[in-house]
Write a structure and sequence with these properties.
The structure holds two protein chains of two kinds. By secondary structure, chain A is mainly β. Chain A contains no helices and eleven strands. In chain A, strands 2, 4, 5, 6, 9, 10 and 11 form a seven-stranded mixed beta sheet that branches. In chain A, strands 1-3-8-7 form a four-stranded antiparallel beta sheet, with no helix packed on it. Chain B is mainly β. Classes of the chains: A mainly beta, B mainly beta. The interface between A and B is medium-sized, with 24 and 22 residues.
Amino acid sequence: EAQVTQNPRYLITVTGKKLTVTCSQNMNHEYMSWYRQDPGLGLRQIYYSMNVEVTDKGDVPEGYKVSRKEKRNFPLILESPSPNQTSLYFCASGGDYEQYFGPGTRLTVT
Amino acid sequence: GENVEQHPSTLSVQEGDSAVIKCTYSDSASNYFPWYKQELGKRPQLIIDIRSNVGEKKDQRIAVTLNKTAKHFSLHITETQPEDSAVYFCAASTGGGNKLTFGTGTQLKVEL
């Protein structure tokens, strides 16, 4: 089954404790992205990747890191999470146009 | 960078009526305009998209129109049904689907 998966789906953590949210796709897509969704703000892109080892900043990259060592995986790293990073995070993958979103990760930073 | 404004933020219609959601964008170089639907607790899913060389596109009860001169595009849903209730997001991009700027969303409620 073609899909985008994310783990964990829910995470509660404390300020400053490094965490990684994993994203994996099995559709051989070149493009992968991370978005955060906040009430009243819609979906905002954090980082995107055009291919292995090729990444670029989106609209809200501060406080986040990414890596793309394999085509299927695109982890999101928060090295020192802060409460303003409490949000719903979506990974997406796709070809030139349609993007397929993962199920989302709800992160709470206290 | 690109800025996308979306209106209205909430929309309530009676079943069977039409619904229209409007978006404006700022970057005249934008050439790809998708619409995503997000049901409660679910992931966004593409429902229709349009590219800048086309003025209108239809898919059953859903249509999208694009006015490049005015830099706005709209989603039209006819004969609305309860299952159309969801949040709808417009988006714009200068380079395809991998670098989208989204609007803030429209909560559509279809009442029986």
